[in-house]
């Protein structure tokens, strides 16, 4: 007999502190071991940042260096906080607090309000839009539905940037922000909104942070009490911190520097909410002695997807672009990204649905496919196309899994059956755990076969089917587990909002997709006016749109398709153009100019250093016939593919042998050292100095530092151990 394959959903808790470090790469391990002083982790997409910081916390707790109750880990969404709690629990560090900024502040506010202010904390306003509508009506400002939503967002932005109503018009002018209405009108509505909150004794989510900040600033005794409680802080997605959140973090810290932040300036996509990467980019300035660790090994995406992602950022400008990380894929090669142009939006949706159906037929689970768009209004045509194609889907941003009515009813039924034990007639003659779950859920509407079509009925079935699959995984991971054990697991997951996967294609906006990943991703509607969005006017706004597309690309593990349509509706004028961001990257769109290499991985401790100055290059031309080069392979060789080569064949083979040894030592594919085309270019040009080697496409500053001496020595005829047989 062979042992059952352990489920990755339910890994065994590491037996020792050192075992927590098993499986981490060198940079992730450095993060886990950096338990003292300020630490900044610059983590590219797919590089395992959550793994690194949860293992850091768990190692500190398991080694007795960090007391669980003294650690506060903060992030930006309940889902991310729930995932962090789940991972810490699996690593044996379940007592650590992992919360959003708002939930951490709300707990402190509820606890200290009676002492600091007296009485009960005012009621928390779940949705502010109705109160904004009332304020606008009081001010005799007419707002339609869309304007009402936009003005509400403006008020939220003003509050997180600590802008009071009277200062709003000046703040808008200074930030070059496009206000949805006359700033004076919004200022008036904002002031009335604040007055109505006071009159009705309610507070909003931004007030939670503002009031907590005010109490900590005014009451040093309360601030000291919180600082005694929490002595170590970890902040995930640090590029998304607002000025108000940074102020709260500073007050939590006091004069201490026991802080670890994690972020990626290239994934800053929420500036419209007040988020800014400046705190991440200025971290070394504020903390000159900080340990900085860069994570660039991408475990999520294939080299083909990573190449496109790196190419997108290579054309970027601005301060965030100067600190970009050049990812290095750790996966086997996959298919090249696909590009599709359609006559109109319905044709694009139908074509996407056909490709989705083909992927499902080829074995890609529906739950591992996503269709991502710029704005939510684009979803309807894709919902219709997928429904017409018979493909199940789910809208991202809908009700949370464990809050759904059918899931709550299923939980009640499972809990009742667990209490009844052998006295439940539903469980007569049912032996194993998955069969028991299927029997219980059949009473709540689950069937072996899914209902036809889409809509609410199919959504409910998919939720219950997700519970069945979870039970099957749980039983495989823990043979002998009972229904009561499963119910306890579901309760813990519900508390952490750690939901199982619903098997349907995900439809989501690019913003909502942040932090998620799928085997196959379709990026749709990539035409000028939508990407970048038409109201992105300034250079900073356009660069944020580029980063948003980068986030979309890096959601894909293997399959990636990018598409656009030439008109909005059938028969319309074909006036649209594909997004400028793909110029030089998609076939037939011209050559991609080099903007300099991004930062490599590694560790820095307490030293300064600026970004390298970028070099702008003109069109690449063949060094044999002078023709303009457009293909990436030709540009590496600096000659047309069919122009004669003067390559030194012996040198090329020696370089290949050396590369093979390097790749084995690094545990990476050979092309991660140098591609074949780059080796051919080196063997043709036989560089004699670092400068001559550096100008060869595919070398770059990082590889020049790492491999330059060996390559130049081999070119000079020296033996650099190119064979494994050398002793």
From TrEMBL:
InterPro entries recorded for this chain? DExx_box_DNA_helicase_dom_sf (IPR013986), DNA_helicase_UvrD-like_C (IPR014017), DNA_helicase_UvrD/REP (IPR000212), HRDC-like_sf (IPR010997), HRDC_dom (IPR002121), HRDC_dom_sf (IPR044876), P-loop_NTPase (IPR027417), UvrD-like_ATP-bd (IPR014016)
A GO molecular function held by the record: DNA binding
Named cofactor requirement(s): Mg(2+)
The superkingdom listed in its UniProt entry is Bacteria
Enzyme Commission designation? 5.6.2.4
Catalytic activity field: ATP + H2O = ADP + phosphate + H(+); Couples ATP hydrolysis with the unwinding of duplex DNA by translocating in the 3'-5' direction
Which positions in this protein are listed as binding ATP?
Answer: 43-50
Signal peptide as annotated in the record = none
Where does the record place Gly residues bias?
590-610
List residues of the UvrD-like helicase C-terminal domain: 303-558
**Keyword hit for Nucleotide-binding:** yes
Q: Which UniProt keywords apply?
A: ATP-binding, DNA damage, DNA repair, DNA-binding, Helicase, Hydrolase, Isomerase, Nucleotide-binding
Instruction: Cite the UvrD-like helicase ATP-binding domain residue spans from the record.
Output: 22-302
Classification via CDD domains: DEXQc_UvrD, SF1_C_UvrD
A GO BP term here is: recombinational repair
* Gene3D superfamilies assigned: 1.10.10.160, HRDC domain (1.10.150.80), P-loop containing nucleotide triphosphate hydrolases (3.40.50.300), PCRA, domain 4 (1.10.486.10)
Q: What is this protein called?
A: ATP-dependent DNA helicase UvrD2
Q: Which organism is it from?
A: Streptomyces showdoensis
Which lineage ranks, top first, belong to the organism behind this chain? Bacteria, Bacillati, Actinomycetota, Actinomycetes, Kitasatosporales
């Amino acid at each position: 007999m062979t042992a059952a394959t352990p489920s990755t959903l339910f890994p065994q808790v590491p037996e020792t502190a050192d075992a927590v470090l098993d499986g981490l790469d060198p940079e992730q391990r450095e993060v886990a071991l950096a338990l003292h002083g300020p630490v900044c982790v610059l983590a590219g997409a797919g590089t395992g940042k959550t793994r690194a910081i949860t293992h850091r916390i768990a190692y500190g707790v398991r080694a007795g260096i960090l007391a669980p109750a003294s650690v506060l880990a903060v992030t930006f969404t309940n889902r991310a906080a729930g995932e962090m709690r789940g991972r810490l629990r699996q690593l044996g560090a379940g007592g650590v607090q992992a919360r959003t900024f708002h939930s951490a502040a709300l707990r402190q506010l509820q606890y200290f309000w009676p002492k600091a202010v007296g009485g009960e904390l005012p009621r928390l306003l779940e949705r502010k839009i109705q109160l904004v509508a009332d304020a606008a009506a009081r001010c005799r400002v007419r707002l339609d539905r869309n304007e009402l939503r936009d003005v509400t967002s403006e008020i939220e932005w003003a509050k997180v940037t600590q802008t009071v109503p009277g200062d709003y018009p000046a703040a808008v002018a200074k930030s070059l922000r496009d206000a949805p209405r006359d700033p004076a009108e919004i200022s008036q509505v904002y002031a009335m909104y604040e007055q109505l909150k006071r009159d009705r004794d309610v507070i909003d989510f931004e007030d939670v942070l503002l009031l907590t900040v005010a109490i900590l600033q005014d009451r040093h005794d309360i601030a000291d009490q919180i600082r005694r409680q929490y002595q170590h802080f970890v902040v995930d997605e640090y590029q998304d911190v607002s000025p108000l959140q940074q102020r709260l973090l500073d007050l939590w810290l006091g004069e201490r520097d026991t802080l670890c932040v994690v972020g990626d300036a290239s994934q800053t996509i929420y500036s419209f909410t007040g988020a800014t990467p400046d705190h991440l980019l200025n971290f070394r300035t504020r903390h000159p002695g900080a340990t900085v660790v860069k994570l660039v090994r991408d475990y999520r995406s294939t080299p083909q997807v990573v190449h496109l992602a790196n190419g997108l950022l290579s054309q970027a400008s601005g301060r965030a672009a100067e600190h970009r990380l050049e990812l290095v894929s750790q996966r086997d090669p996959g298919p090249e990204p696909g590009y599709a142009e359609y006559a109109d939006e319905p044709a694009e949706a139908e074509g996407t649905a056909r490709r989705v159906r083909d992927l499902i037929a080829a074995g890609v689970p529906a739950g591992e496919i996503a269709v991502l768009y710029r704005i939510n209004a684009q979803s309807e045509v894709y919902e219709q196309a997928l429904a017409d194609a018979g493909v199940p889907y789910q809208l991202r941003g809908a009700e949370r899994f464990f809050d759904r009515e059918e899931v709550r009813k299923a939980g009640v039924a499972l809990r009742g059956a667990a209490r009844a034990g052998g006295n439940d007639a539903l469980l007569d003659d049912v032996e194993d755990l998955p069969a028991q779950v299927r029997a219980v859920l059949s009473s709540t509407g689950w069937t072996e076969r899914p209902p036809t079509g889409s809509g609410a009925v199919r959504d409910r079935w998919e939720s219950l089917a997700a519970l069945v699959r979870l039970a099957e995984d749980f039983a495989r991971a823990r043979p002998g587990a009972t229904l009561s054990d499963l119910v306890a697991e579901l309760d813990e997951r519900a508390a952490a909002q750690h939901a199982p996967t619903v098997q349907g294609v995900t439809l989501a906006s690019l913003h909502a997709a942040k932090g998620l990943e799928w085997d196959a991703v379709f990026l749709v509607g990539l035409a000028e006016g939508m990407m970048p969005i038409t109201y992105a006017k300034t250079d900073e706004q356009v660069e944020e749109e580029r980063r948003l597309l980068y986030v979309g690309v890096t959601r894909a593990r293997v399959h990636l398709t990018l598409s656009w349509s030439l008109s909005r509706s059938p028969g319309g004028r074909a006036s649209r153009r594909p997004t400028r961001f793909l110029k030089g990257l998609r076939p037939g769109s011209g050559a991609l100019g080099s903007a300099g290499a991004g930062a490599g991985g590694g560790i820095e401790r307490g030293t300064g250093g600026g970004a390298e100055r970028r070099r702008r290059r003109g069109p690449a031309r063949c060094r044999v016939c002078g023709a303009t080069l457009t293909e990436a392979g030709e540009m590496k060789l600096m000659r047309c593919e069919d122009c004669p080569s003067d390559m030194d064949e012996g040198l090329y083979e020696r370089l290949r042998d050396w590369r093979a040894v390097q790749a084995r030592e690094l545990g990476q594919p050979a092309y991660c050292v140098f591609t074949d085309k780059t080796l051919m270019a080196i063997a043709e040009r036989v560089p004699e100095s670092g400068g001559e080697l550096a100008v060869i496409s595919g070398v770059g500053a990082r590889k020049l530092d790492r491999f330059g001496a060996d390559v130049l020595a081999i070119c000079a005829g020296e033996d650099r151990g190119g064979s494994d047989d050398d002793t």
